[in-house]
Amino acid sequence: MARYQRSWSDIPPELAALVLLRLHAHSDRVRFAAVCRDWRACARQHQLPPPLPWFILPGGTFFTLPHSESFLIPNGVEFHSSCGEWLVFARDDICYLVDTFSKVTLKLPDLDMYDRIEEPDEVINGHSMCYICLDVDVTMSIYKVIVCSVLLVAAIVDIGDLRTLAVCRPGGNLWFVSALGYDRSFDIILHGGKLLTVDGWRNLCVIDVEEDSDNGSLFISRIERIIKGPPWPFRQFPGGLLVFDQYLVESHGALLLVRGTIYGKPPEDNHTGFEIRAVRFEFEVCEADFQSSQWVERRSVGGRPGAVSWAEMLQVCLCAPVQSEGELHLLPG
User: Fold this and answer.
1) Residue limits of the KIB1-4 beta-propeller domain (predicted)?
2) CA end-to-end span of the chain
3) Which residue among 111, 116, 258, 272 has its CA within the 20 to 30 Å range from the CA of 68?
4) In angstroms, rounded to a whole number, what is the distance separating the alpha carbons of residues 218 and 63?
């Protein structure tokens, strides 16, 4: 008599769901969905919390939580930053993206190949666009990359002293640079399928990028300011130095703007006059209310009053590429 071979799909869906809810690493969730068709359907039906991050070490090795599995990323010395499941590699004038699971590679245009993009002269509900003179002899550097789709990549770029928005087609040969930036607090995010930008005055704009059907060039068809400031509250720190930075981050479907403030003071034994020691960190959070077109201060995030949750602050850290050696990089799970 043939013995019945039980399948993983024989496990009741409610029991499989309990297993899924205990998987906090993205790699484990991918493996769960790959077991069988029923488990894959189970993975799609449940709203899961954000996965735990990956930690990238100098040299290209990364490990995951909670099991501390370690992996080696090829060409890790060229690692720049991350965007979702994409790793960004940049060196000299070369930049490309690698999907961490499918291993798909998207080559981006060389960083010395760029031109001014065609865009509106006015920002709807905003201001006139500034005229910028691009120094074509300067190689562009990447600060942050957003993968809108496999057909469109947006980035914050530095060209000399200019920080601005640039877009390109993966596999294309040219970056298209906007005049929208110029603010060092400039940030971008893809939220609800829309490309959004914010400046140091907390002006939030939506950007529509299209392709010219005649020549295939990208152009910006519309720039609209959907939230007008106001600027962040003024801070003072007598006898010390304040360093600000801000990031757009998505949390449970909401769009948050987080400002991090570092309070620094020179150490007592400072002899060079250039050394600053961080003595305190503060984070301020506001949420975009698209109905009233304003920022709303958040007193609690992730169930913790007065602070951004640990996982969300890790996600905020992902937005800024680490430039120096010997530091820890963070990747979304």
Assistant:
1) 73-304
2) 47
3) 258
4) 38
Give the closest residue to 300 by CA, choosing from 290, 287, 289.
Answer: 287
Residue for token pair 């029923």:
38
State the chain's mean pLDDT as an integer: 79
- Cβ atoms of 247 and 271 within 8 Å: the answer is no
Task: Answer whether 190's CB lies under 8 Å from 148's CB.
Answer: yes
Lowest-confidence range among 7-21, 64-78, 288-302, 314-328?
A: 314-328
Mapped onto helix, strand or coil, the DSSP state of residue 148 is strand
Per the listing, tokens 């090795």 go with 61
* pLDDT higher than threshold 90 for residue 190: yes
Gap between the Cα atoms of 306 and 242, Å rounded: 21
Total length of the chain:
333
What is the pLDDT, as a whole number, of residue 224? 95
Tell me how far apart the alpha carbons of residues 53 and 64 are, in angstroms, rounded to a whole number.
7
Pairing, β 175-177 against β 114-116: parallel
Q: What tokens were used for 289?
A: 């209310």
The answer to whether 29 and 51 have CB atoms below 8 angstroms apart is yes
Radius of gyration, alpha carbons of the chain: 22
Helix or strand or coil: residue 64?
Answer: strand
Q: 36-40, 59-63, 80-84: which has the minimum mean pLDDT? A: 59-63
pLDDT, tens only, 194-204: 999 999 899 99
The overall pTM is greater than 0.85: no
For 30-45, the pLDDT digits (tens) are 788 888 888 888 888 8
DSSP state of 199: -
